[in-house]
Amino acid sequence: MKTIPLAIIGAGPAGMAAARTAARHGLRPVVFDEQPAPGGQIYRALESTPLRDPELLGQDYWHGRSLIEALRREPVDYRPGHMVWQLTRAGEIGVLAGDTAALIRAERVVLATGAQERPFPVPGWTLPGVMGAGAAQVLLKTSGVVARAPMILAGSGPLLYLVAVQYLRAGASVAAILETTPQENRRLALAHIGGAIRGWRYLRKGAGLLRELKRAGVRHERHVVALRAEGEEALTGVGWRTAERPDDWQHCEATTLLLHHGVVPNVQMTRALGGEHDWSEQQLCWRPRRDAFGRSDIENFFIAGDGGGIGGARAAQLQGELAALAALESLGHIDGPTLAREAAPVRRKLDAELVVRPFLDALYRPGDSWRRPDDEVVVCRCEEISAGEIRRVARLGCAGPNQMKSFTRCGMGPCQGRLCGLTVSEILAAENGQSLEQTGYYRLRPPFKPITLGQLASAAGDAPGAPAWNETETAS
Amino acid sequence: MERDRDRFVKPTALVIGGGLHGASAATQLARSGFRVTVVEKNYAGRHASGVNAGGVRRLGRHPAEIPLAVAALERWQRLEALIGDDGGFHPCGQIKVAENDENMARLVSRAAEVRELGFDHEITLSRDELRRRVPAVAPHCVGALACDGDGAANPYRTLTAWRRQSQREGAIWREGVRVTRVDRAPGGGWRLSTDHPDLPGLDADWLINCAGGWAGELCGALDECVAMQAQALMLTITERVTPFLGPVIGSASRALSFKQMDNGSVMIGGGIAGCIDTGGERADVRLAGLAENVQTALGLFPFMRDVRVVRTWAGIEGVTGDGIPVLGLSWRHPRLIHSFGYSAHGFQLSAITGEIVRDLALEREPALPIAPFDIRRFDSSSAAARASHTH
């Protein structure tokens, strides 16, 4: 098995910034990117998007250009289309490229695996036509595809407005925005208004998006307290109730419903590695433990970007620089004083970048009833386990998500618990009167994403004919 | 008043390890009048007992294990009546496939060997008969050894059923409690110290070692000689595919266990060891070993090549130096019984081992031969003693 000094997993802002920092210090990192081109989710398909009009996707999107250019220019071994499906504490990385699985060992690993959308289970969310707003945005960036009208967006958080505006600009017809932000959030967020004022850029952007939606005449329903996707074979409409009219189901026809309740760290890899995770009550998610430089509690592993807690793209970029510096220092490639000197300005910028977070987190915090849905709602889509079944098994004495798997197969399907993990932990904690820490989370097992038996067999390590790690290959 | 009197009259037993063998022993001991406490450092079935491949197999057993496996199957067939749930047991049969004539010759002589021991459960299958039973098998396979009536069950469900039954019989389970020290108590019993603040000490007349992957550690504390290693045995499971396979498939020449479950997903194992981290509580899969295991499976079922793996894992199990368990009384300490080291094939036997432990604790001769599982086989200094004792 070949050993490399530094592997970076992911090529969003954190991964690209880490790669650039390492390369500028004379160390050529290997970047494994599951996607066909750099940018991660935020700068997805930036080099190839058919939507070239800079106004359409907005300047925050095009900000990614300098990072991508650096990745292409600097001495970085960038490997697009390389999915990491397994990772061990010893730094063994199982990589799948095309139909070939290979094993590589890295002395240091920077995990820059970003965020995923928070699960948003409502009645009917498994119907064709219902998808995450983030996923819909990926479609838009990659292909310029505009979902068939009429579409409805429901949920909470800045991305919801952004996606609505981007779709409007691309020519879609947005029938309604159903905002689920609880009424009291505004008051609770005011406690953090100081940070918000210093992070004025975000507020200004949000206000601009709202104005644009209003100008376009998009119906905007606030204080939605219940939501359901309707249809038999596919989505035909959306029903909702508001705090002001709690007994009336209102209704609107739609063939597309985009759901969004913010993003949470993608912890598949840090969980599989067995690192410690803390429950963040502020962000309502698990955060892998890391220090100010991104050093995790797993030796030789570093965490950069939203995978360690949601801070946004700019923060992720700075964290990528810090994690790379820390990795270089631990490899002996730079010394302690150099690390301290180079990190200091980055850390100052990072602090300034994060100051708005407590305000945003409080303002867009999804209410309890959204995170712990009613009994009839399907929670685990792969194995079709409802919230009621989870509560029933909890009453039988099931204390944690791993026992839940053994009882019901909940979380054991192809999505590896991505779409139900948070919901299951939150329901169990509430049902058992325990904290989230006591309740815990799924033990994650490889593969992180499904690979075929044929692909797995191709990694038969020491067997003759096994694919060797191709040293000369550089894709860029 | 009744309970207080019990306290003085009933003998007490402490079972260390809340796995299948611990739960089976606890059930039988409690039913026979012992006051039983099971101490489990994590939760019931956390390791091998909860996450094994679920094979209910007499096929290919070590000769010493055959009588136990035959008796165990009889319990499996009426498990629901015994413990209130059938554990998901399906008697779909087990088949060991020969990939060439040399393999087949070995299977034929194995069948003869089993018949000579007085058992008739293993039968050879011709190429045509194999094809009829397993149409999906690769065409190069020349025949097989089969065991009708064997099958597979759901491990965690089975464990839960045994645990519940033991509780109905009166056993107390203490999960999340780790034994930190074992001492002899005055009067011939045992005193255990634990890491749990509410349970600093536990006393009992009998101590039952069902500690699975951790049994070797416990033996060390008890000054017992045993050649045993904790191993993390790996399994792979695929997405659901259209039903194509009834029986559980093994290979005559390679490590493999291959079966399709009720929901359509396929489980691939074969006792291939993964890694255990230094703390000993975490099992990790070893990529190269998994890849080889999957390659073996694809050799027999090449059409599975494009089926996706959804999950791989490893469960920690105690594996002995000679691959058969330790089941019997200690010769170093009175009132100590061992039941561990099932070496990745203890799931089926768990239906009978509790009865043997019960017989030993009642100080009567077990109904089945257990001399080959005597712990003294690992103690060279007592080899002579064993020779004189067994015959």
TrEMBL record, chain A:
Protein name as catalogued: NAD(P)-binding protein
MF-aspect GO terms: oxidoreductase activity
Q: Which residues form the SoxA A3 domain?
A: 383-457
Instruction: Report which superkingdom the organism of origin falls in.
Output: Bacteria
Q: Record the organism.
A: Salinicola corii
Q: Tell me, what's a Pfam family for it?
A: Pyr_redox_2
Tell me the ranges covered by the FAD/NAD(P)-binding domain, including all copies.
Answer: 6-320
Keywords (alphabetical) are: Oxidoreductase
- Tell me which InterPro entries the record gives: BFD-like_2Fe2S-bd_dom_sf (IPR041854), FAD/NAD-bd_sf (IPR036188), FAD/NAD-binding_dom (IPR023753), Metab_Enz_Cyan_OpOx_G3PDH (IPR051691), Opine_Oxase_asu/HCN_bsu (IPR017224), SoxA_A3 (IPR041117)
